[in-house]
Design goal:
- It is a single chain.
- By secondary structure, this protein is low in regular secondary structure.
- The chain has a single domain, classed as Peptidase S8/S53 domain (Rossmann fold, 3-Layer(aba) Sandwich).
- The chain has two helices and four strands.
- Strands 1-2-3-4 form a four-stranded parallel beta sheet, with helices on one face.
- Strand 1, helix 2 and strand 2 form a beta-alpha-beta unit.
- The termini are far apart.
C-alpha cells in the first residue's frame, strides 16, 4: 500500500505489478468471498490508486483454468487484470479467471503470447 501511495505522490500514472495474493506461506488463503473488490489490503490500495487516476495493471493469477481462481488485487474495480494468452491467442491453461465475488468478469485483457513479445536489450536499442 505504501508503495502505491509513494508512486502516486511522485506522479506515476501507470503502475504495473507482478504480484498477486491468494494463498500465503502460513497456509492462509483468501476465500472467493474476500475477492469482492473491497476487502483485501492489496485490492483496497489498488482501487484507491485507480480512483486517484493511476492505472494499476496486475496479473489475474496462474491458478487456472477454473472459475474463481483470480488473485488479489485483480478483483479490484478499476484495476486492469491481465490474463495470460497461449501461443494461439486463446487463454493459457494456467491463467486464472473470475468472476469476482460480486460477479464481475475478470481478466479484463489478455497479454500477447510470450513467443511474440519483445524485451529491451541493454545495448544497442536496435536489438529490441
Amino acid at each position: 500500500m505504501e508503495g502505491l501511495e509513494w508512486l502516486e505522490s511522485q506522479g506515476a500514472r501507470v503502475v504495473i505489478t507482478d504480484r498477486g495474493f491468494r494463498t500465503f506461506g502460513d497456509g492462509f488463503t483468501y476465500p472467493i468471498e474476500d475477492l469482492d473488490g473491497a476487502t483485501t489490503p492489496a485490492t483496497v490500495a489498488s482501487v484507491l490508486a485507480s480512483e486517484r487516476g493511476v492505472l494499476v495493471v496486475t496479473p489475474v493469477g496462474d491458478l487456472g483454468p477454473g472459475a474463481e481462481t483470480l488473485v488479489a488485487p485483480a478483483d479490484g474495480d478499476g484495476v486492469l487484470a491481465a490474463g495470460a494468452a497461449a501461443a494461439d491467442g486463446t487463454q493459457a491453461p494456467s491463467s486464472s479467471q473470475g468472476p469476482t465475488a460480486d460477479g464481475r468478469p475478470k481478466p479484463d485483457a489478455y497479454g500477447v503470447p510470450g513467443s511474440a513479445s519483445r524485451q529491451p536489450a541493454p545495448h544497442p536499442p536496435s536489438s529490441w
